[in-house]
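Let us practice reading a record.
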Amino acid sequence: MSNPVEQFDELLNDASILFVVYYRGHWCPFCLSYIKTLRALKEQIVGANGKAVIVTAESAIHLAETRAKTGYGGDAIVDPENILAGELKKRGLLSVAISEKSGYPNGMAQPALLVLRRDGNLLYQWAIVPSLVRPF
C-alpha cells in the first residue's frame, strides 16, 4: 500500500483540479450520500480535467462495500493512521476532525471536502466540527 500523502500528491499532479471527500465509513448514510453526489459529478469533474478521490480511516476491508453501496469506482485512499489528514492540516488546506470510535485504532476521520487546483490554489474546503453536531 502506498503512502497516503504520496497517493494524494500523485493524484493532484495528474489533474487540474482534485476533489477530495473524506468519509467515516461504509456504515455512514451521510457519507455515502456525499460519495454518491461525487460520483454523479464525475462527467463535470473529468470535463474540467479533474480527478476525484475518497479518503477514509476505516479499514480497507470495507472499501468494496462502500463502492457497492455508492456505485463509486474512482480513486480511494485508505488511511487508518490519518497521515494525510495531518499533512493537509500542516499545509494549511484542511482541518479534518479525528474522533475516537471503536474499530478505528488511530481515530475516525470525520466528513470533510476539499477542492484544490494542481498549483495549490484552494477552491473550497469544509470539515465537520463534531462539537457542533450530534455525536456518532
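A brief commentary: The two ends are 29 Å apart (CA to CA).
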